[in-house]
Amino acid sequence: MTKNMMRLTSMVSAIALTCMTTPAFADRSNDTLRAAMAEEILNLDYNYTTKREYIILAQLTDATLFDIDPETQQVMPSVATGYEFVDETTLDVTLRDDVQFHDGTLLTAEDVAYTFNWIASGESESNANGVLARWLDNVEVIDGQTVRFHLTSIYPLVLRDLANRIMLRKAGTYTVDGQIDRDAMSSDLIGTGPYRVVSFEPGTELVLERFDGFFGDAPEIQNIVVRNIPDVGTQQAEMMSGGIDWMFKVPLDLAQSLGATPLATHLSGADLRVGFIVLDAAGHTDPDGPLTNVLVRRAINHALNTEEMAQYLIGGSAEAIHTACHPAQFGCDQSSTAYEYNPERARELLAEAGYPDGFPLEFWAYRDKPAAEAVAADLEAVGIDVDLRYVKLESLNQARAARDIPAYFGTWGSGGTADTAAIARIHFSESDRNLSGDAELQDLILSAEQTNDQDERLSIYSEAIGTIADEAYWAPLFSYSANYLTSPDLNFPLDPDGLPRLQNSSWK
Question: Residue 115 in contact with residue 129, Cβ under 8 Å?
């Protein structure tokens, strides 16, 4: 535990003791859920943002063509009522006739076609453009309730993309008085979701109200207020005083400390994010370096006590993993090679590889410093002389792009997509994250996105994940756990995909 965490935990304990007899539960009289987010909220239009916070908000204010059932990972109707593949690259989607925008106007097929064609165009400069650029040619209106998607190639994740990323806008939204306005929805958002924007002060507060015209199941809570509170200590104090009802990304020690009092409830749920070490097997940093030797990479895997890291450093529902994907993702074959924690075997492999006395290793990390330090300590224990470079993410990204990183601690959340494609294509295809140097593996990974046959995709990913494990291109570490603190009066259900859904909250 860091000194700051120790001080904050002590503060929580001290304040909690003074409040034990008079806990400040949520004031339900105005039916308002008050949530805290540390990340500054500056733009309400998820078509022009990224990050988990904006996903949470988009689910409140917007609706997508389809939904993904978090329990089964099956595609479900939402704004769309159904779909039909005319052929492998042509998809017809039928729409509901009762979907209202927050200004009361009905959504039309023209609105849907406009939204997708705009985001797919180069002039949109949308953060979601990269999602559509992989597969979308254009969208045309067939009739009042039907749109046709023309794909550039076979793409098996098209329905997932339609469910996860693109928020629907009225035709012409991003053109104001003949001029492109990419910020048109950044503040005065007009969406189709269960809540509408009442007021928004960027970086400070967002006030939402239940939208009576919502086409789906109405949320139980009338109002949601999202406050930007950057400091976790201030969030904790607000939770204890009854100023907020929900906070997330809570450090484990603090969540456990305050959750043990009557002032808050600690919830810990699954998260699709995984942690791992990427190794420069291709030899970008040193063509003849130790990491180009598979025995060395296997030794590194054997040296890491991932079970203890998951249990004591991440906690909650975190688990050790042995694959380059999350076990819950489609195609993440768990029968692939697993390297048990065995420091002695690691030393033997290093000696066999010609490094009986170890070697120096520059190891980069940008987050979860205790975990990065634990990795360094485990590697030091088998003779590897680790130089831990703990830097900001921007610095790591720049060094990786320059092919100047021999090994780094990375994490990936797959955007909440429970499919191996969401992690494999980024880390083992045409990306500076791919340090394997394995062209055949890259072709194999990409081939899984050239077929709609799910059995074939499963077989491809099984082979690819097996190759990554056998060649030890990664040292997989652990899955993550999401820690929340809530008011004792709030019922906040946790979903297995780890995505917080405030719209499903209710009062006890």
Answer: no
Fold of 27-41+184-270+482-507: D-Maltodextrin-Binding Protein; domain 2 (3.40.190)
Confirm whether pTM is higher than 0.70.
yes
Cross-strand bridge partners of residue 78: none
Q: What is the DSSP letter of 419?
A: B
Q: How far apart are the first and last CA of the chain?
A: 34
90-95, strands of its sheet edge to edge: 80-87, 90-95, 146-151, 136-143
Residue ranges of the chain assigned to CATH 3.10.105.10 = 271-481
* Residue pLDDT, tens place only, 441-494: 999 999 998 888 889 999 999 999 999 999 999 999 999 998 999 999 999 999
Give the DSSP per-residue string, 212-274.
TT-SSPPPS-SEEEEEE---HHHHHHHHHHTS-SEEES--HHHHHHHHTSTT-EEEEEEEEEE
Considering the four listed CATH numbers 3.90.76.10, 3.50.4.10, 3.30.110.170, 3.40.50.360, the one that applies to the domain covering 66-180 is 3.90.76.10
On the CB side of 433, how many CA atoms lie within 13 Å of its CA? 16
Instruction: Decide: 472 and 436 in contact? Cβ < 8 Å.
Output: no
Which contiguous run of DSSP H or E holds residue 388?
strand 385-390
The first and second tokens of residue 309, run together, are 């890291």
